[in-house]
Amino acid sequence: MRCWIELNAAALKHNVEVFRKLAGSALMVPVIKSNAYGHGLKEIHDILAPLQPEWLGVNYLSEAESLRKLGYQNRILVVGPIHPKSCPDAFRLQADIFLGEETTLQEWIATPAEQKPRAHLKIDTGMSRQGFLPEQAASLISRLEAHKDKLVGICSHFSNVEDVLEQTYANQQIDAFTSVVHQFRSAGFQLLSHIAASSSALIMQSSRFDLVRVGISIYGLWPSRATQLSFLQSHGRLVELEPVLRWKTEVAIVKGVHAGQFIGYGCTYKALRDMTIAVLPIGYYEGYPRLASNRGHVLIRGQRCPIVGRICMNMMMVDISHVSEVKPGEIVTLIGSDGSEQIEAGHIGEWADTIHYEIVTQLNPAIPRRVSAS
């Protein structure tokens, strides 16, 4: 591929330390699921290894297996639903799993002790995705009494923290979760409790129970503008999160376009003047969203160069009429800084009517990742 991703190791370590401090007495769990939010599972693991993280979070057992093959020996939290018959595999990998629905719970209970993995009971406090309802707590306590040694955690997930400034719904979820935790502990269960992810860890001190699961923000990305504003309102300043990822390509072709000519599929862009365009060897296969066609820009020599025409599977065109004597092979910044200009993943998300989570996680895993110290 004629594009590459640069990963700033110092930025990642800085962000981890920010959240370790925010977590206080709680343990911080870096979540590196979905190819480390598109950054690269192996590369992010290797950067984190010297920090000796006590936990890492993934979504699939296959990701847990990859971590074991990379040499990671501490706790792995699998936050996604596993196949009910996969309990022995989770035990083999010494991975903690979520029990979030009846079939998996039954299989886990029936699994012999010598193959039963550690588990965290998921409580649905208002997300309506994974988890048992709070009113099922008494029944669950009775069913799980004989498995106290392998039930090590109880957890939930927020539905609506990063989209709002007022946390009424989140506080209701905390109240429901706290009530269930109290019931289990009163029944003699010794469980790690956790509900916080990036946004709640940043702005809701009451959400930081025993573990704090931090995903998007260890990569230097605020969960949302609302989260930034909430943090600023409560603290008077922002913590500095440093973006870890830079995405670059190079100019493949430079060509002239006459006034009146159309550019790209569908004839969606018509040159109103003579133009010079650069063809970049990158498109939606590599992870650049087609919806950003005719809306976004890239950086060349520190100048914004608008995207013209539809983004193709493996190519896109940009207007370089205002940048003199651009040559094939010149560096193009897709995400990152060039001179005084900067493009964030969130900017591309806005151009594509989506969120920055989607932009980074859809970066093609085959794109080479290069780790730099800074």
Structure description:
- The protein is an alpha/beta fold.
- It has 2 domains: 9-235, Alanine racemase (TIM Barrel, Alpha-Beta Barrel), CATH 3.20.20; 245-372, Lyase, Ornithine Decarboxylase, Chain A, domain 1 (Beta Barrel).
- 29% of the residues lie in helices and 23% in strands.
- It is built from 12 helices and 20 strands.
- It has helices at residues 9-23, 33-37, 41-48, 61-69, 87-92, 102-110, 137-144, 168-186, 198-203, 225-235, 345-351, 356-361; strands at 3-8, 27-30, 55-58, 75-78, 95-99, 119-122, 151-155, 192-194, 211-214, 245-250, 253-257, 262-263, 269-270, 275-280, 297-300, 303-306, 316-319, 331-338, 341-343, 369-372.
- The strands form 6 sheets. Strands 3-4-5-6-7-8 form a 6-stranded parallel β-sheet. Strands 19-18-10-1-20 form a 5-stranded mixed β-sheet.
- The protein is elongated.
- It starts with a strand and ends with a strand.
- The model has no long low-confidence stretch (mean pLDDT 97).
Question: Which terms summarize this structure?
Answer:
5-stranded mixed β-sheet; 374 residues; alpha/beta; Lyase, Ornithine Decarboxylase, Chain A, domain 1; 6-stranded parallel β-sheet; 20 strands; 2 domains
Enumerate how many helices there are, as a single number.
12
**Could you tell me the strand content as a percent range?**
15-25%
Instruction: Please identify the structural class as seen in this structure.
Output: alpha/beta
The CATH superfamily name of the largest domain is Alanine racemase
Mean pLDDT: 97
Strands of the biggest beta sheet: in what spatial order? 3-4-5-6-7-8
How many structural domains in the coordinates? Answer: 2
Give the number of DSSP strands: 20
Low-confidence stretches: none
By CATH reckoning, the class of the largest domain would read Alpha Beta
